[in-house]
Write a structure and sequence with these properties.
- The protein has 313 residues and is of the alpha/beta class.
- The protein contains ten helices and nine strands.
- A seven-stranded mixed β-sheet has the order 1-3-2-4-5-7-9, with helices on both faces. The chain has a two-stranded parallel ribbon with strand order 6-8.
- The protein starts with 29 loop residues before the first helix and ends in a 7-residue tail after the last helix.
Length: 313
């Protein structure tokens, strides 16, 4: 499979970090003037580091929370393609990042899913999930593959699976974790796509499980929130890493129209990775190629199926 066409001049730059340090009080309080001796507070190195970490966490949560819509529907996901009584020819699962609602069209994964529904074959299932709803996504995939509705998947039902999973930020990490969940069930995955992937503390989004035929990673290196720079295959014989593509928005900024002030100030690169039309166009073309060609990666997928249930090393 050929690698996606990436503009070379977008892949430059270095990581940068931001630190925040409290200042000690500059004056003694009024009690000192009356003769009462008080110890002046002098912050230790440890306290300053702790304050810096706490400040970073608060800012990060604020940024992620700033994308929550005022009113969101009390559902976990939205299926953008109506389901037929037969099994879909392909299943496309997208995950949004942060605390974003699954139907918020400000965000790249939702917009991409909406475009894919117009170009994919009619019997393709396209669904968008919030990153914390990975179990719902898993249950949806298993239900769609269960053609005879017996509550389990036969070897034939697993073999015919054509699944693509993509996501941004926390959603990109969720895409890898869903593929890992499907590996345990013996279900193959055609492709995983990570965009500026950010894993939660207890997650590992860097190693792609052996049931995935192809995987690709897009990231930018700047700011408090920046994506994982490299993904690897748990089993290179089963999974092809199409590339780890670096985008530098300091050198090639992208205008985002719906960003919040917090995003623009603290995480401009992470924000731009979600609204970059060139980046999402590359991903869209990758998905269209695989959805329009039923035989694509069939041999690789069949090979992945045979080891899908094996535990990841």
């Amino acid at each position: 499979m050929t690698s996606p066409n990436i503009v070379a001049n977008r892949v430059i730059g270095e990581n940068q970090s931001v630190s925040f340090f409290p200042h000690p009080p500059s004056k003694e309080n009024h009690l000192t003037k009356t003769g009462i001796s008080l110890l002046r507070f002098v912050p230790s190195r440890a306290s300053m580091v702790a304050a810096a970490i706490l400040t970073t966490i608060i800012i990060t949560v604020t940024i992620l929370s700033s994308t929550i819509p005022a009113f969101s529907q009390p559902v976990d996901s939205v299926a953008l393609r109506s389901q037929s009584t037969s099994a879909p020819s392909s299943i496309v699962i997208g995950f949004v990042g942060g605390f974003v609602s699954h139907d918020n069209l400000r965000h790249g994964p939702v917009r991409l899913a909406q475009r894919i529904q117009h170009s994919a074959p009619k019997d393709t299932y396209v669904g968008v999930f919030e990153n914390r709803r990975r179990k719902s996504a898993y249950d949806t995939v298993m239900r769609l593959l269960d053609i005879d509705h017996d509550g389990g998947l036969s070897p034939e039902e697993k073999t015919r699976a054509r699944i693509i999973v993509f996501g941004h930020s926390w959603g990109a990490a969720a895409a890898v974790l869903l593929a890992r969940d499907l590996q345990k069930a013996g279900v193959p995955v055609l492709l995983t796509v990570q965009v500026d992937s950010v894993a939660k503390v207890w997650q590992n989004d860097s190693v792609i499980p052996g049931n995935v035929a192809e995987a690709v990673n897009f990231y930018q290196p700047h700011g408090i929130l920046h994506g994982r720079a490299k993904i690897t295959a748990a089993d290179p014989a089963k999974t092809e890493i199409l590339g780890n593509y670096r985008f530098d928005y300091k050198k090639n900024p992208v205008a985002c129209t719906d960003e919040s002030r917090v995003e623009r100030f603290f995480t401009p690169g992470h924000m731009q990775s979600e609204c970059d039309p060139h980046l999402w166009s590359v991903i869209e073309n990758m998905l269209r190629d695989r959805l329009s060609s039923p035989g694509i990666s069939a041999e690789t997928t069949a090979a992945a199926t045979t080891t899908a249930a094996q535990p990841q090393p």
